[in-house]
Design goal:
The complex is a heterotrimer of chains A (110), B (542) and C (240).
Chain A lengths: L6 H21 L3 H25 L6 H36 L13
Chain B lengths: L19 H19 L6 H20 L7 E2 L4 E2 L2 H27 L5 H19 L3 H19 L6 H32 L4 H6 L17 H30 L7 H8 L2 H36 L9 H25 L4 H25 L3 H31 L15 H4 L1 H15 L5 H17 L5 H31 L12 H19 L2 H13 L4
Antiparallel strand pairs in B: 1-2
Chain C lengths: L3 H4 L1 H14 L10 H22 L3 H21 L3 H26 L3 H4 L5 H34 L18 H12 L4 H8 L4 H22 L19
Helix pairs in contact in C: 2-3, 3-4, 4-5
The chains are: A mainly alpha (110), B mainly alpha (542), C mainly alpha (240).
């Protein structure tokens, strides 16, 4: 009974993925991997939206459940945009500095 | 209230007029892109003119043809009230001043492309969306539109490593904060069953999310379990959303990014970031968090027994108190030791975000007219801050000679002797930033701290708000030292050599406009304040 | 009804399998196929996400990220979000990952550059904060576990205040009907119905966002033309 995949299980999965993403952002130095970790976090947030949507599917107001889908859809658009711009910036940085290690970004100091 | 009624509050109203300023600005951006392709090789001043005309038309539409009434359109996605109007004006004015400042600066840094103008216009679109957004999805998309445009603007000098670095740092941290924001919104959605702020208030303080499902309504026990779960989702979601916003305004847990990004970005973009992004983020922050606190109040008034959600307001106040105090203090103390004026202004902008947060925390606690006064004070402050800070950055741009030169404090030595007008303008901005009368900065700080003092009279919150006001005033006193330092250099230190400071017409116009407004707001604040109060009153969902 | 799921049998299969488990208020709860698939894909997702974060080279990170995205798509299908599942595969596992891999190949990082020092201090902070967050989240999500148990165990309890919930007057048949409706609610038809009505404005705004992205990539990745008219100040900042 306790092990059926319910709201708790889905949300926990999203939480674990989100925290793995946070950990990756803080721990890693390679800009591309940091970026992938952020994608992981965004995906976890999407999973929360879709999960809540599904569990509100029998809500008296049909619109309530669909809002989560809409939000997940829009956040995919946002993620695509961010990735495109971010990778372009990483390429330019590599062209100029020959490194994408975030710790080498130290020109700007007081 | 009907649990199936969330949709009922959202009017099916496709009134295109309500988003006319947005459409005008976006269309201007497209026009600029088309013109850029056709006038290749010539000066870009023409593009500046086109952009300014577009922004001017949008400004006129906003000032004189704004719906104004408390109405939402596009199924409640957009709410064009006086609050939105006020922040739309700030966004448009910040965009116009930035373009004026950039006109002569861009060729210097070899970034004189039409895309710069288009991106500034699109960033303004994002800011307008944050001002008019009534649904978290519109706010989120607005934040992202603005932020992505700003990431690119920071890195627009593709050959300069500093610019690249600034761009990458801003992007990585910005996307990190966005993920927190999104996760928080997801949890709030799960708890309340809506992402619409108006629907949230109109729900009458009932959590319609996972606890609003039909099956649970048959079963009291199940309903209560789901209800308690929803409360925790809501609290967790609010915390995450606050983290996301704290990044955008550069408040303390996330203040580390600000100086590096500001210093590396082209100076006109830095000015735009310091005022535009901050003002728009505060607009969204105020709308969302006043909505959340109102919801919490409604919820508490419904509850029979103790519920975890009832603590939300006090916890939120505690957190914002801490963040505001740390932001003010750290910003000011770090600014004290800077020798680069651009970096000093970056730290000072952190401190100013702290002052505005004082007003926000007061607004969250109070209600009725007192709240309107506090929100009005924050809005007024952001308006004043826009003119004084963009003016100061304008002078920095004017002193700039192609690279970092001209940004250091010693570059200002004896400026008053050979450029008295520029020095005088800088003096006005510095006095205003320090909060010395008769400038806009003084009036803004006065309203915010007096709101904090009046909030201190609320039973049980005396220590809390009085201490906030006292710390704020102490911080202002500290800040006087570093704001007056450039003035000392300009007026009392003789120049080793005179720098070439060109008085180009567009740039001078921008600085002149800023000076006039700083003094005008400082001497006659009544008209501006009444517009701000009008906006604050419109914010109340009733 | 013509829907996405009729074209993609795998989606229909997963949704079918999940239907029992996800359906709230079902009387008989056994460990069904839906649960099995959930745990399968959850384990795959968490494992590959862990590998994304810890892998030495960006390439293996990227490939594990593809696996995560696919597992997420399967989980969306379990949640009967058919449209989003397909979009997840197309946009994330398709477009975004190709972009990532393309850039990694383009950068051509040499072996020694891949050996990075880790942020051990920040990592430790992240670990502690992460554990705290897990505890916090699990504690609040835990309550939602109780929700289902309670629903399943006691549907015969006294009804709540009818004035508060007018929907309660509806018959059980109607609720069953809505449950069937709920089982296929993430189809393209349902999504598009709302996307082009209530969400018309955000949809248009998204186009603005994409425009910013397009301009941005063009601006950032365009090489500067080396034209320096006489008298222009040369910015040698990059060389410092």
């Amino acid at each position: 009974m306790m092990y059926n995949a319910g709201l708790f299980q889905y949300l926990s999965l999203a939480g674990v993925l989100f925290i793995l993403g946070v950990f990756g952002v803080l721990w890693r130095k390679n800009a591309i991997i940091v970026f992938m970790s952020i994608e992981l976090m965004l995906n976890a947030a999407n999973l929360v939206f879709v999960t809540f949507s599904r569990f509100m599917a029998s809500h008296p107001d049909g619109y309530v459940a669909m809002q989560g889908h809409m939000f997940a859809f829009m956040s995919m658009v946002v993620a695509a945009c961010e990735v495109a711009v971010g990778l372009a910036i990483i390429v330019v940085i590599f062209r100029n500095k020959k490194t994408i290690d975030v710790d080498d970004m130290n020109l700007l100091k007081g | 209230m009907n649990p199936s009624g969330i949709q009922l509050f959202l009017k099916q109203n496709f009134d295109i007029q309500t988003v006319m300023p947005l459409i005008v600005v976006a269309a201007t951006a497209l026009l600029v892109l088309l013109l850029e392709a056709t006038i290749r090789g010539k000066s870009r001043t023409f593009l500046t003119a086109v952009s300014l005309v577009g922004l001017g038309v949008a400004l006129l539409l906003t000032l004189f043809n704004f719906p104004g009434a408390k109405q939402s359109s596009f199924y409640g996605m957009v709410r064009t009230d006086a609050f939105a109007q006020f922040f739309t004006v700030i966004a448009l004015a910040a965009g116009s001043l930035t373009l004026l400042l950039s006109a002569n600066y861009l060729p210097k840094i070899k970034s004189d492309t039409g895309e710069f103008h288009a991106l500034v216009l699109l960033a303004v679109c994002g800011m307008i969306l944050m001002a008019i957004g009534n649904d978290l999805i519109v706010l989120f998309l607005g934040i992202e539109t603005m932020s992505i445009a700003m990431y690119i603007l920071c890195g627009i000098r593709v050959d300069a490593e500093k610019s690249n670095e600034s761009s990458l740092k801003y992007l990585l941290l910005g996307a990190f904060a966005s993920a927190f924001l999104l996760f928080g919104i997801a949890l709030i959605y799960g708890a309340t069953g809506t992402t619409n702020i108006e629907a949230l208030i109109n729900s009458g303080g009932v959590l319609y999310g996972i606890s609003g499902i039909k099956e649970y309504q048959w079963d009291t026990g199940a309903y209560q379990f789901a209800e308690t779960a929803a409360q925790y989702f809501f609290i967790l979601g609010v915390a995450f959303v606050f983290l996301g916003f704290a990044f955008k305004i550069g408040a303390v847990p996330f203040h580390m990014w600000t100086p590096d990004v500001y210093q590396g970005a082209p100076t006109s973009v830095t000015g735009f970031m310091a005022v535009g992004v901050k003002a728009a983020a505060f607009a969204a922050l105020i709308r969302v968090f006043l909505g959340i606190v109102d919801f919490g109040d409604l919820y508490s008034s419904n509850a029979i027994a103790y519920q975890p959600l009832m603590d939300l307001k006090d916890v939120l106040l505690g957190v914002i108190w801490l963040v505001a105090v740390l932001t003010m203090t750290l910003g000011n103390l770090s600014a004290l030791i800077q020798t680069n004026l651009k970096r000093m202004l970056a730290f000072s902008s952190i401190a100013h975000a702290g002052y505005a947060l004082v007003g926000v925390s007061v607004a969250l606690r109070l209600s009725g007219d007192d709240r309107d006064a506090a929100v009005g004070a924050v809005m007024f402050y952001l308006l004043a801050y826009m003119f004084m800070n963009l003016g100061a950055f304008g002078v920095v741009i004017m002193m700039n000679r192609g690279n970092d030169e001209g940004e250091h404090l010693h570059d200002y030595n004896g400026l008053a002797s050979y450029r008295p007008l520029v020095a005088a303008a800088m003096a006005v901005f510095m006095f205003s930033l320090a909060g010395i009368p008769p400038t806009a900065g003084f009036v803004g700080k006065f309203y915010i701290f007096s709101a904090a003092v009046s909030a201190g009279t609320v039973e049980g919150y005396g220590l809390y708000f009085y201490s906030l006001a006292i710390i704020g005033v102490l911080n202002s006193i500290i800040s006087v030292y570093y704001y007056l330092y450039p003035l000392r250099n300009m007026y009392f230190v003789s120049a080793e050599r005179e720098h070439k400071v060109e008085l180009r017409p567009l740039m001078s116009a921008s600085i002149l406009i800023s000076t006039i407004f700083v003094l005008w707001i400082g001497v006659m604040p009544k008209g501006f304040l009444s517009r701000a109060l009008e906006g604050a009153k419109a914010l109340f969902f009733g | 009804m013509i829907s996405l799921e009729s074209y993609i049998p795998a989606l229909a299969f997963l949704a079918e399998a999940a239907a029992d488990a996800v359906k709230t208020g079902a009387s008989e709860m056994n460990f069904g196929a839906g649960d099995f698939f959930f745990y399968l894909f959850a384990v795959i997702a968490v494992f590959s996400a862990f590998m994304v974060v810890t892998a030495e080279s960006p390439i293996s990170s990227a490939l594990f990220l593809v696996v995560t995205f696919f597992a997420m798509a399967a989980i969306y299908a379990l949640l009967s979000a058919h449209f989003l599942a397909v979009i997840q595969v197309l946009v994330y596992a398709g477009a975004i990952m190709v972009l990532f891999l393309f850039v990694i190949m383009l950068l051509d990082l040499r072996k020694e550059e891949l050996i990075e020092k880790r942020h051990w201090l920040l990592g430790a902070v992240g670990f502690v904060v992460g554990i705290a967050l897990v505890v916090l989240m699990v504690a609040s999500f835990r309550l939602s576990q109780n929700v289902e148990v309670a629903v399943k165990s006691g549907t015969d309890q006294e009804a709540p205040d009818a004035a508060k919930f007018p929907a309660i007057q509806e018959s059980a048949d109607q609720i069953d009907g809505s449950r069937i409706e709920a089982a296929r609610f993430g189809t393209t038809r349902r999504v598009s119905k709302h996307l082009f009505r209530e969400y018309l404005f955000p949809f248009e705004v998204a186009s603005l966002l994409l425009l910013v992205g397009i301009i941005g990539v063009v601006v950032i990745s365009r090489r500067r033309r080396r034209r320096r008219p006489p008298g222009e100040v040369i910015d040698e900042e990059g060389a410092s």
